[in-house]
Amino acid sequence: xxxxxxxxxxxxxxxxxxxxxxxxxxxxxxxxxxxxxxxxxxxxxxxxxxxxxxxxxxxxxxxxxxxxxxxxxxxxxxxxxxxxxxxxxxxxxxxxxxxxxxxxxxxxxxxxxxxxxxxxxxxxxxxxxxxxxxxxxxxxxxxxxxxxxxxxxxxxxxxxxxxxxxxxxxxxxxxxxxxxxxxxxxxxxxxxxxxxxxxxxxx
Length: 203
Hints:
Blueprint: H1 2-23, H2 30-37, H3 41-47, H4 51-75, H5 80-97, H6 99-108, H7 114-140, H8 149-170, H9 180-201
Helix pairs in contact: 1-2, 1-4, 2-3, 4-5, 4-7, 5-7, 5-9, 7-8, 8-9
């Protein structure tokens, strides 16, 4: 029974992600998602009581896939520079591919529903954990020296996240989510920052 429930939940997440990715959060209804799946609305609401909770689950589901892909790329890297490049590229590629899903979180600014706020906090924690894993690999290989691994990982993530704010402010679009082209610019800046950051940790 539990396995069947898990299958249904995943089907709902995949169908909702297709809708959110194509039409956006605002233009998608729970009824449309239920119709896509040939489910009753009651069944859909059994798994997700409202659209905000469903959106938060879709966001986490998408990020979990991004984390898995990023880990695969990091594992194949031969140096800390390659690992950071893999992390940054995989992360930005996933955001661009699921632009309409991530775009909604930017548009909310500080008005986050509790479920979505919890999901976004979890996403940042996963990012920091991946950065910490990269730094740990660099330490083991003798490429870098880090005094406080958790704090150093957090500093790096805060720095690269701040670049999005800097870029949209530079283009006078502080209340508008970055365009796909701006994401390319952000990636270039983040790679440059990673290079500077790594140099500062060399023994």
